[in-house]
Amino acid sequence: MSARILDGRMIGRAIRNRIKTDVAELSELASATPGLAVILIGDDPASRVYVTNKMKACADVGIRSTLIEYPKDVPAEALIQSIERLNDDPTIHGILVQLPLPPHHDVRAVLHAISIEKDVDGFHLYNVGGLVVGDTIFSPCTPFGVMKILDHARIPVEGRNVTIVGASNIVGKPMALMMMRRDATVAVCHAKTRDLAQYTILADILVVAAGVPNLILPQMVRTGAVVIDVGINRLPDGRLVGDVDFEGVSRKASFITPVPGGVGPMTVTMLLVNTLSAARRFVEQTHGPIPAPVHPEDITQLA
Ligand SMILES: NC(=O)C1=CN([C@@H]2O[C@H](COP(=O)(O)OP(=O)(O)OC[C@H]3O[C@@H](n4cnc5c(N)ncnc54)[C@H](OP(=O)(O)O)[C@@H]3O)[C@@H](O)[C@H]2O)C=CC1
Ligand SMILES: Nc1nc(=O)c2c([nH]1)NC[C@@H]1CN(c3ccc(C(=O)N[C@@H](CCC(=O)O)C(=O)O)cc3)C=[N+]21
Ligand SMILES: [Mg+2]
């Protein structure tokens, strides 16, 4: 068997084309161009590359974005004040604080200062809680993007065995909650899991987000499984790889996401989706209801 490639660049492009139309429509209808503020703290070169990519993606669909930069030793109060100013700024609909923060910063205090209406990353406690009970405002972009990949390929989730490798707050845990909401049977593995293969082999859908190259080998994957590789690892030779042995696992899986070109582009796409959604909410709250965009499905919803 040779797995079919789930092409995140292509799926992302299709969604972005629709966002572009919706952004133009919203700009015209309510003269509200969606605006995203990106806060970058410190001088991590990888973070800078990601931030640049996100802002470029915004520009491509007509979303305005502003970069706010701070040195790594910025005082906590200055950071919180900056976020509060953005919370009050009517031209800003989404606020993203690029992670990881330099050491010594209190990640929670920073994330929780963001207005829940502008929390386009979905990292605020309110949105995390919303995910648990099933009525979140914003879904975290990476697992949201994974759900969109599965839906696009018409891969059913209900009743299937889903194993998630990685239990972080930004990927593994919200992924588990989204899969539960879609009535999957979910196992969540992490660094202290004994005998990882025992869980991965059961999976109809295997989502891997550990940050360990070649963590998932062919013998750990069930024939015909759907394999979603969230991992992003830069090897010493400069190559970018995921957490899955792509060559080997491709021979057993029915579908697989490549790295690059799989989940990564979908993460950025869902950030655009959430920012559009935030702008629509803002307009509706200040001007009253506006007509829904004319698409067969609502791209801003988890479904
Ligand atoms: N494609 C995309 O859009 C995105 C990609 N990423 C990538 O996904 C990966 C994970 O990111 P993130 O969740 O932020 O990372 P974290 O480092 O926050 O979490 C990693 C998780 O994987 C678990 N883990 C680590 N090693 C193993 C192992 N050997 N076996 C089983 N589980 C293990 C950890 O377990 P424990 O909890 O016990 O420590 C932890 O739960 C990274 O490569 C990151 O670059 C991240 C965000 C977006
Ligand atoms: N507040 C916050 N929100 C995030 O969503 C967030 C974050 N902080 N910190 C870092 C992680 C990581 N992340 C990625 C986004 C895009 C790609 C992406 O576009 N990847 C391309 C390749 C990019 C490359 O070539 O390096 C791909 O997989 O094809 C990857 C990873 C978002 N994150
Ligand atoms: Mg983390």
Order of helices and strands: EHEHEHEHHHEHEHEEEEHEH
Head-to-tail CA distance between termini: 31 Å
Top-tier CATH class of the largest domain: Alpha Beta
Provide a count of the helices: 10
* Radius of gyration using CA atoms only: 19 Å
| Major sheet: arrangement of strands | 1-11-8-7-5-6
Main sheet: strands, sense, barrel: 6 strands, parallel
CATH superfamily of the largest domain: NAD(P)-binding Rossmann-like Domain
How much of the sequence lies in strands comes to 5-15%
CATH topology of the largest domain: Rossmann fold
Q: Can you list the ligands bound to this structure?
A: NADPH dihydro-nicotinamide-adenine-dinucleotide phosphate, 5,10-Methenyltetrahydrofolate, magnesium ion
Helix/strand layout:
Elements: E1 4-5, H1 8-30, E2 35-41, H2 45-61, E3 64-70, H3 76-88, E4 94-97, H4 107-113, H5 125-133, H6 141-152, E5 161-165, H7 172-181, E6 185-189, H8 196-200, E7 205-208, E8 226-229, E9 233-234, E10 240-241, H9 246-250, E11 255-256, H10 263-287
Parallel strand pairs: 1-11, 2-3, 2-4, 5-6, 5-7, 7-8, 8-11
Antiparallel strand pairs: 9-10
Residues 142, 165-168, 170-172, 189-193, 196, 209-212, 215, 230-233, 263-264, 267 line the site of NADPH dihydro-nicotinamide-adenine-dinucleotide phosphate.
